[in-house]
Specification:
The chain is mainly beta. The chain is 0% helix and 62% strand. It has no helices and ten strands. 15% of the residues are buried.
């Protein structure tokens, strides 16, 4: 069984037991649980349920494993022949969670 969920504008295909990186969510403790109510599709062995826009009554439960920062992205700007150069780095925060349960209505 798998589901397509949307969290903070990102769509993810998830199965039970998967470890996923979600956009950073402040205020979540390690071991706490959260629910993704925005389930767009659920596929099990027998049939597929597609939401319009959501599958009614379906939820995906997640357990928070921790937080982290992604690899560094370098942003480089340059204007030729003007001695203008700028180098900046950025590391995006994320929340890591495990899918504990996919429940369909």
């Amino acid at each position: 069984m798998y589901a397509v969920i949307e969290i903070k504008g990102r769509q993810l295909i998830v199965r039970e037991g998967d470890v996923v990186r979600l956009p950073y969510e402040a205020g979540l403790d390690i071991g706490s649980s959260m629910k993704a109510d925005r389930v767009l599709l659920i596929r099990d062995d027998k049939k597929t349920r597609i939401g319009q826009p959501d599958v009614s009554g379906a939820t995906v439960s997640l357990e928070v494993l921790g937080e982290g920062r992604d690899r560094k992205i370098l942003v480089y700007k340059k204007k030729r022949r003007k001695k203008y150069r700028r180098l900046r780095g950025h590391r995006q925060k994320y929340t890591e969670a495990v899918i504990s349960r996919i429940a369909a209505a």
